[in-house]
Specification:
This protein has 23 helices and 17 strands. It is an alpha/beta fold.
Length: about 575
């Protein structure tokens, strides 16, 4: 990432482009860690305990008021603020006479070092952990909570990084774009921006040095921020806005130029998300993240609570397809009633489907709830398990699901072993869905948060595409559907490659659907297959994308700013 003549470069999320003034998000105020909290150690203990309680409660309220992915990540952050170990270790040091803020800093630094060493999902939580620290310290000292300032006009929000709690404070009506110096294309800020349809560019070095009020043009498609844009740049931004708005008016089903059907689906996290899709031009839901219902709680929701939520989703979508993912907890989404303590590497531990090893009744209850909701609504939802690694695990999940009354059963392909043995897995289930974010992470052994390793995590990596192809081959051999519900489905150019590899459905943030629909409609299935072959023949991710771009329709390249 470099700065050249008023142009800052980073990694873009989305296709949109905007022009607006910069508003900087300032972090926590400088606090002297030796500053006294309370009159004595006992008083400091009380004040800090109240601060932990207040921050956890506030984050919980924000999670309850939020929707979709934002609700999910806020719920996880609220749990972090309420974490017994974080609280107990801090208060123990306060009781021993250590200044309260210094004690909090020391404990958080210890946890952060442990998370960073573990890598993967836990490393992604360090920003959230430090956000919790800043909020607890500010509350204990009677200072304003850090976060996004009140926006007085439509603005481009710039920050070093944004925690979920910061994103919850955004006035979406006045937020034109998000720009961060850190983070990554699959981090929280990027995912939430994609869900909300807000142009976003991450890893933009020098962005936080921009003075407040500076006019900038943000081009998410190109991953570029232009300082003091001239008339030509402003005209290009307006042209993009008009073109994307026109694409949004097309409500036809997804299909290639020669009539090959490709279902275009939405990723959701809550019943409210589903209800917003009632009039949306999507063919259903390819990923319902049911764990949102479980986050921020001390005990699992009851079977009746789950039935009510699932029935709302199924009612909202009517006869459209709905794919529910069973509880994907563990790693970055710990649940106090089931997470295993002391795991050295939770991202590779007891998470997702593997929870059946320690809490089988939790899965059985969820499956019964889905079956009851299906019966109530007269619908036939598809259900899939995350983090499956073997054909035996797929078979056992299918047995449990069918025993509960679920008729259509599948698994996620996130672990390379499943892609390699897709034929065996598909002999046990009705469908599979590729979670390309985790598949890329596990294939390339790359922490999603490490910006300096973003090239390894690129979904265009030929090795990752090879695994997608193997999975699709297994689907064809077994005559089973193979979907993609990872972020790669939202890239219009990569979507063409996925279809060429044999993927039958694409699920993404609703805001990405128009661009993907447009790209599909301008290319035949044969051209998609040519692109897939070119991508897999390339030596590098950069070469793979360039080869496909050269084969893409000129109008698609221009309208979607594919480069």
């Amino acid at each position: 990432m470099t700065t050249v003549a008023g142009v800052l470069h980073g990694t873009g999320v989305g296709r949109g482009a905007v022009v607006g003034p910069v508003v900087q998000v300032h972090g926590a105020p400088e606090i002297d860690p030796q500053e006294q909290v309370g009159a004595d150690a006992a008083d400091a203990h009380r004040v800090m305990a109240e601060a932990f309680d207040a921050v956890a409660a506030r984050l919980g309220e924000q999670a309850a008021a939020a929707r979709g992915t934002l609700a999910e990540v806020l719920g996880a952050t609220a749990q972090m603020a309420a974490d017994p170990a974080l609280r107990a270790q801090t208060l123990a040091r306060v009781d021993a006479g250590e200044p309260a803020v210094a004690a909090l800093d020391a404990v958080v630094d210890g946890f952060a070092a442990m998370f960073e060493q573990a890598g993967g999902y836990l490393a992604e939580r360090v920003t959230d952990l430090r956000s919790v620290r800043d909020r607890v310290a500010a509350h204990a000292l009677g200072r304003p909570a850090p976060g996004v300032p009140v926006l007085e006009r439509a603005s481009v929000v710039v920050a070093d990084d944004l925690a979920p709690a910061d994103t919850a404070g955004l006035d979406l009506a006045l937020t034109l774009a998000l720009v961060t110096e850190r983070g990554g294309p699959t981090g929280h800020t990027a995912i939430i921006a994609g869900q909300l349809g807000i142009p976003c560019v991450v890893q933009v070095r020098g962005a936080t040095d921009l003075p407040e009020g500076t006019e900038v043009a943000v081009d998410a498609a190109a991953g570029v921020l232009t300082v003091d844009p001239d008339d030509a740049v402003r005209a290009a931004v307006e042209s993009r806005r008009v073109a994307l708005a026109q694409l949004g008016e097309d409500t036809a089903p997804g299909r290639t130029a020669d009539g090959h059907d490709v279902a275009l689906l939405a990723n959701i996290g809550t019943a409210e998300d589903a209800e917003r899709l009632v009039d949306a031009a999507v063919e259903g839901v390819g990923l319902f993240r049911t764990e949102v219902l479980f986050l921020g709680r001390d005990a699992a929701p009851t079977e009746d609570e789950q039935v009510a939520t699932y029935a709302r989703v199924l009612t909202a979508l009517g006869r459209r397809k709905v794919v529910l993912r069973t509880l994907d907890a563990g790693a970055d989404k710990p649940l106090p009633f089931v997470t295993q303590p002391g795991e050295e590497n939770p991202a590779l531990g007891v998470r997702g489907y593997r929870l059946v090893r320690v809490a089988e009744e939790l899965l059985r209850t969820q499956l019964r709830a889905v079956a009851r909701a299906a019966e109530q609504t007269g619908t036939d939802p598809w259900v899939m398990a995350p983090m499956v690694a073997t054909a035996d695990e797929a078979r056992r999940f299918a047995e449990l699901a069918r025993e509960a009354g679920v008729r259509t059963v599948g698994v996620m392909v996130e672990v390379p072993a499943v892609a390699l043995r897709a034929r065996d897995v598909l002999a046990e289930v009705d469908f599979v869905s590729l979670g390309t974010n985790d598949l890329a992470q596990y294939t390339m052994a790359t922490d999603r948060l490490r910006g300096e390793l973003a090239d390894l995590l690129d979904p265009w990596q030929p090795a990752v595409l090879d695994l997608v192809a193997l999975t699709a081959d297994g689907g064809r051999a077994a005559d089973r559907p193979v979907g993609v519900c990872g972020e790669s489905a939202s890239d219009p150019l990569l979507a063409l490659v996925l279809v060429g590899l044999g993927v039958t459905s694409l699920s993404m943030a609703p805001s990405a659907v128009p661009g993907v629909r447009f790209a599909l409609g301008r290319h035949t299935l044969e051209r998609c297959r040519e692109m897939a072959a070119a991508a897999r023949s390339a030596r590098t991710a950069v070469d793979a994308r360039a080869a496909c771009l050269a084969l893409a329709d000129a109008d698609v390249r221009e309208v979607l700013a594919l480069g």
